[in-house]
Amino acid sequence: MTRWLGVALLPRADHTRAAIRLQQSLGGDQPLQPPLSEDGNLPHLTVFQGPFEDSLDPERELARIKAALSLPDQLSLASAGIVHQPTGWLFMSVERPALLEKLQEVVLDGLAPRLDRQAFDTSKDVSRFTEPERASFARYGYRYTGEAYAPHITLGRTDEATALELVRTAPERTRVPAEWIFDRLSFYVMGEHGAHAEKLAELPVGAV
Predict the structure, then answer these.
(1) Beta bridge partners of 182
(2) Which of 4, 32, 42, 77 has the lowest tally of Cβ within 10 angstroms?
(3) Which of 112, 118, 114, 108 lies closest to 57 in space, CA to CA?
(4) Closest Cα to residue 206, out of 71, 99, 76, 12?
């Protein structure tokens, strides 16, 4: 059986709450989906996600990922603004330092062989993807790897016209924190729109 799973960085508790407030203030009377919460769909920064073989052990794989790379106790990433991504997505974009790129490389090195490639959505409309995104999707079944990696916290999805309007009016609706601090690695079950629906394993980012 195929399991749709992901690896992510989780924000520190106060930044988790800040991301939830940001989603709420951005959407206003047009709530973005799915709703973020501390006990449901957690705000997160995806490193990689996709369909995996049922035999994959999240706890063992997360421990291997952490052991392969020396990370600080907290990873601070500067905000790069609220952005729109076709179709209908709203992201809180953050910077992409070399350490984050290396983390994704480590994750891909270990997990790519465990992908269930028969489960890739070959019917997906990729006409609005960039060339690097199309290449990433063809290779890994995920849009954002390598050159196409676009680290972000997903604030939710709506219809395309509303998403464009919300991005345009975002400065009037909400205040974006200058930085986001992440202190945990998570292996999770993907929910609606790739949400962090269920935590399977968690480790602190640094050596604790």
Answers:
(1) 11, 75
(2) 4
(3) 114
(4) 71
Token pair for 63: 């421990």
Residue 193's identity, in one-letter code, is H
What single-letter DSSP state applies at residue 42? B
CA dist., res. 5 & res. 114, Å (int): 11
Closest Cα partner for 177 from 105, 78, 84?
A: 78
Residue 78: helix, strand or coil by DSSP?
strand
Residue 200 in this model has a pLDDT that exceeds 90: yes
DSSP-assigned letters across all residues of 121-136 = -TT---TTS-HHHHHH
> If DSSP codes are grouped into helix, strand and coil, which group holds residue 60?
helix
Per-residue pLDDT tens digits for 19-54 = 999 999 999 888 999 999 999 899 999 999 999 999
Residue type, 93: S
